[in-house]
Amino acid sequence: ERFPSGTHRNFDSYCHKIEELDEAQKNILYDPQPSGGLLIAVRPEQERQLLELAKREGASLTSIGYLTAKSGSRYLKVV
Predict the structure, then answer these.
(1) Main-chain dihedrals φ then ψ at residue 11, nearest 5 degrees
(2) Which pTM was predicted?
(3) N or C, fewer C-beta in 10 Å, the chain?
């Protein structure tokens, strides 16, 4: 499969902050094509409210991970 070259540039820019990903996760997470942010971070107790708001506005969001205390240089673990 072919992916936009921006995918690789995004990976090079941010991979040091995100724990190990498989190829499919990398291609989705670093895809430069979305208009606007692909990742949104909220406190766990606010997740349900954000998902409800997104649904009302016609957006589909899915929780893909969580932020942890910084361990070395990694901030994000995708689950």
Answers:
(1) -60, -50
(2) 0.48
(3) N
